[in-house]
Write a structure and sequence with these properties.
Layout: H1 2-10, H2 13-16, E1 19-24, E2 27-32, H3 36-49, E3 69-71, E4 74-80, E5 87-93, H4 95-108, H5 117-134, H6 141-146
Antiparallel strand pairs: 1-2, 3-4, 4-5
Helix pairs in contact: 4-5
Length: 147
C-alpha cells in the first residue's frame, strides 16, 4: 500500500485527477472532482503491477452529491439540517456500525445474564465509551439516540 501511495505522490496524481487519497492501513478512498473513473483505472493498473488487487465488492465510483458511501464505519455524504432543511456534507456513524453496537449491547444486557451488576455495568460502559470515542466525529446525535 505504501508503494501505491508513493507512486501516487511521485506522479502528482492529486493534480492530474483533481483528487486526494484518504487512507488507513490497507483501506483507502480517492476523493476526486470529476475524474474518478480515470483515477480508478490508474489505481487498478498500478495495484495490478504491485501484485495487489482491488476488492471489487467495495470498489465503487460515487457522486457524493447524490449518494452516500461508507468508509471505516462512517457514512459520508449529504444530509439535511432538520431545522432549516438545508443540505450539507457530513459524516455520521453508519447504520451497520450502529446495528453491530446494538447487538453487542443486547448481548451484555440479555435477560439471562447471571453476572453481578457492577461487572455487567463495567463491560457495558467500556463498550459504549470505546464506541463513542471512535464515533465522536461528525453528526452523531441520531446514532447515539438509536443506541
Amino acid at each position: 500500500m505504501n508503494r501505491f501511495l508513493k507512486y501516487w505522490r511521485i506522479k502528482e496524481c492529486n493534480e492530474t485527477f483533481r483528487a486526494r487519497i484518504v487512507s488507513y492501513a490497507d483501506d483507502f478512498v480517492i476523493l476526486s472532482r470529476g475524474k474518478a473513473a480515470q483515477a480508478l483505472e490508474l489505481t487498478s493498473a498500478v495495484m495490478e503491477r504491485l501484485g495487489l488487487k482491488l476488492n471489487q465488492d467495495k470498489t465503487v465510483v460515487v457522486d457524493v452529491w447524490n449518494e452516500n458511501f461508507d468508509f471505516l464505519g462512517y457514512t459520508f455524504g449529504q444530509t439535511w439540517f432538520r431545522k432549516t432543511g438545508k443540505r450539507y456534507m457530513a459524516a455520521s456513524p453508519s447504520r451497520k456500525s450502529v446495528k453491530r453496537l446494538k447487538q453487542k449491547v443486547r448481548a451484555i444486557l440479555r435477560p439471562g445474564e447471571k453476572g453481578a451488576w457492577p461487572e455487567v455495568r463495567d463491560r457495558l460502559n467500556a463498550l459504549l465509551q470505546g464506541w463513542s470515542a471512535y464515533f465522536c466525529y461528525g453528526t452523531t446525535q441520531i446514532a447515539y439516540r438509536a443506541v
